[in-house]
Amino acid sequence: MSGQSQTTLTFTVGPDDTARAVGSGSLEVLGTPRLLAWLEAATCAALEPDLEPGSTSVGTRVELDHQAPSPVGAVLEVTASTTYVDGRLHRLTVAARHAADTPAGRPGKVVATGEVTRVVVDAERFMSRL
User: How distant, in Å, are the alpha carbons of 11, 30, 52, 111 from that of 26?
Assistant: First the structure.
């Protein structure tokens, strides 16, 4: 594995992504659980090109600061960058910001920052332990 991967994904906040919809609050803004899912999707995408056949990665630790609200319609750019590798363990810095062409929210505003730790596992072996 090269260990130095970066990925950016783009998501648009919809009605099903709000705090109210995901059960993490009462407001019609991006819910933290959905934001975390998007950030984890970026970490998976960052690691995917270097995975051996039959391998996958599993999340083991998350540190997230959700710093600003995003209304329905906001377009977010979500980035994951590998910052540390020790064998199967990978730490990735994650960030989300409003895209420059977003119809809602302030363009370029940082929405969240954090770190996600993932461990590469053999998928079949991992599932056989359940």
Answer: 21, 11, 42, 19
